[in-house]
Design brief:
The protein is of the alpha+beta class. It is built from 5 helices and 3 strands, in the order αααβααββ. 64% of the residues lie in helices and 13% in strands.
């Protein structure tokens, strides 16, 4: 009897988790579709100054640098560079590849306009 009750509780919890996951997935898909509706030029205009500086540095250096080199060249904290690179990666401007203990940053798409 106790096993049956435990099984019913587990099945109920599983059903609730599946429903919550589906709702979250729908919300994420809707957000992704609204984000891709932006024009490339608008996306370049919405970049932070740090993001623009990183893209400019990558362009000057043939599109490939270690993350630590970006930190040294721009004189910025590691956390600031990391957050900026994450934004640029999500926007599709750069690709970050892990090589051992280091991150290699590769320029994928140069923005239309850098200011």
């Amino acid at each position: 009897m106790l096993i049956t009750i435990i099984l019913l509780v587990q099945l109920t919890a599983l059903a609730l988790a599946a429903y919550a996951g589906r709702a979250k997935l729908r919300r994420l898909l809707a957000e992704a579709q609204s984000d891709t509706a932006q024009e490339p030029r608008e996306a370049a205009d919405n970049l932070h100054d740090v993001d623009k500086a990183i893209l400019k540095l990558l362009t000057e250096r043939q599109g490939i640098l270690y993350q630590s080199e970006i930190t040294k060249e721009l004189g910025l904290p590691k956390s600031t560079v990391h957050k900026s690179l994450r934004r640029l990666s999500e926007a599709g401007y750069v690709e970050i590849q892990k090589r051992g203990r280091f991150n290699v940053v590769i320029l994928k798409n140069s923005p239309q306009r850098l200011q």
